[in-house]
Predict the 3D structure of the following.
Amino acid sequence: MKAFIYITPKPGILDPQGDAVGRALSTLGFVGVQDVRMGKLVEMRLPEESLEKAEGQVRKMCEDVLTNPVIETYRYRLEPEDDAS
Amino acid sequence: MESKVSTGGRVGVVVFPGSNCDKDCVYVGQRLGASVSLIWHKETTLPDLDLLILPGGFSYGDFLRAGAIARFSPIMQAIVRFAASGGYVLGICNGFQILVEVGLLPGALMPNTSLQFICKTLFIRAEAQTPFTSHFNLGTPIPMPIAHAQGNYYTDDATLSRLRKNRQIVFRYCTKEGALESSANPNGSTDFIAGICNKDRNVLGMMPHPERVSEALLGGEEGIKLFSSVLSHTGHVGTHGGR
């Protein structure tokens, strides 16, 4: 199972990095770009074959390690893999 | 140096891969007559200590988030127990980041609003009576260096009012004259916060580096008051003499 975990600053949390990128975009002529938020993408391969188990694993990882719940929020996408071997 | 020492006191300084200023902390402890041990982060128990210091640096390269990986070092469980039993814990810079990640202090330290690493001496003022601040005059500006990229303290409004109510905001950034003006806030910290303590006042985290201004030759001695405060509180150091 492949997991794609997207970590972003919580809504309302100041994101200086996103703001700087947003300003750069408008300087470059990308008019009307708003609310640029910068985050992280974590990709991984999980041994679990059941979607449900993999989901439980990913949530636990996010809550225990991958995010700081004070300032960050996460979404994820799971992709079953064909047997790679 | 004529620090009057009764029994010396015992200070521990934790070393993570990527710690820095750990040796500076050792030096300051020894200046105050304490016996100081360096504690490798893989240890699972702590010796008997009066003060445990989590030094600055970039533990684990600040990967994921500053302090996020160090939090899972074997020694951290012993530190959490030590703090819970009333032991004095001081986290400086990266040490502060680790303390919030492990949950001994509330809030989070986000990237500086300038997005830059800032290394300069500025001013803070002690705002609350704690075992760490008894040798400071509250409200008087203290020159102290900062050196961080992620020192922008954030917490939600409910926690902030709790911190205020319990007088847990220990240090705030200020101008040379002691004023809270936005120009004095180097990193965008909520409410000018430079350091906070827990409710029981035995765990202090701060972004500025007191150990870097604890020797006149290195630019100042104001910082040593923090260490002498807590060691005298534990009954080990008499007055700090200076030269």
Remarks:
- Residues 10-233 of chain B form a domain with the Rossmann fold fold (CATH 3.40.50.880).
- Confidence is low (pLDDT under 50) at residues 1-6, 239-243 of chain B.
- The helical segments of chain B are 22-31, 75-84, 94-102, 157-165, 224-233.
